[in-house]
Amino acid sequence: MLSAARRDIGTENDEANTFYSVSVELQGRMMREDYTEQKCFINKMSPAVAFVEAAHLPEHGERIIAYIEQIGRLEGHVISVTKAGFEVSINATPRKQNKLAAQLTWLANKHELGMEEDRRHERTTPRKMNSEIRLEDGRTYPVRIIDLSVSGAAFEIDVRPEIGSLIWLGSMQGRVLRHFETGISMEFLNIQPIEELENRL
């Protein structure tokens, strides 16, 4: 849900670059300046600042690169450190900040409304696990399907189309919902007939 209790400032002197934080539950991996990597968890975020929890806390001012589920790549510098975690000021262009704002609004509303999109319908592993996806520009890539339902699918793939981008899995059209370590998940634009699922791969 939207947190109006405080605002996060992207830069100290730019009052226009002010955003509301939202409560989220996002996992990912972060890399520190010494190139060590570890898991991380974000529980509050705006397009300018993210509050991050991790087992090993970085130093104030340290540069961080993180890959966050449903968000993608983030880069920034640590602006505060507490026992509970640390805050990162996100380096982003205005266009990237607007995109983040849209993603965070969607995530916050989804959480508030209880919209767990990938659990609305039972998922199964299809007999035919190998298929391909097609992007809007016509490029195609082979995929290995992890699970499938009438509303979406998750599959292993070497590329990471942008979250929200339009793709086709076989003859089924949908949008990229999130990234994970070995692939992506998508949500179909329309509920598919269960008896036709595997034929449409």
Written account of the structure:
This protein has 201 residues and is mostly beta strands. It folds into two domains: 2-113, Thrombin, subunit H; 118-200, Thrombin, subunit H. Helices cover 10% and strands 48% of the residues. The chain contains one helix and 13 strands, in the order βββββββαββββββ. The protein has one helix at residues 94-113; strands at residues 2-9, 18-31, 37-45, 49-54, 63-68, 72-81, 86-90, 130-135, 140-148, 152-156, 166-169, 172-180, 183-188. The strands form two sheets. The protein has a six-stranded antiparallel β-barrel with strand order 2-3-4-7-6-5. A hairpin with a 3-residue loop joins strand 5 (63-68) and strand 6. The chain is elongated. The two termini are 36 Å apart. The model is unreliable at 1-17 and 113-119 (pLDDT under 50).
Q: Count of helices?
A: 1
Ranges where pLDDT stays below 50 over 5 or more residues in a row are 1-17, 113-119
What is the CA–CA distance across the termini? 36 Å
CATH topology of the largest domain: Thrombin, subunit H
Percent range for β-strand residues? over 45%
Q: Strand-and-helix sequence, N→C?
A: EEEEEEEHEEEEEE
Indicate the mean pLDDT. Answer: 82
Looking at CATH, the homologous superfamily of the largest domain is predicted glycosyltransferase like domains
Which key phrases capture this entry?
201 residues, Thrombin, subunit H, 2 domains, six-stranded antiparallel β-barrel, 1 helix, 13 strands, elongated, disordered N terminus
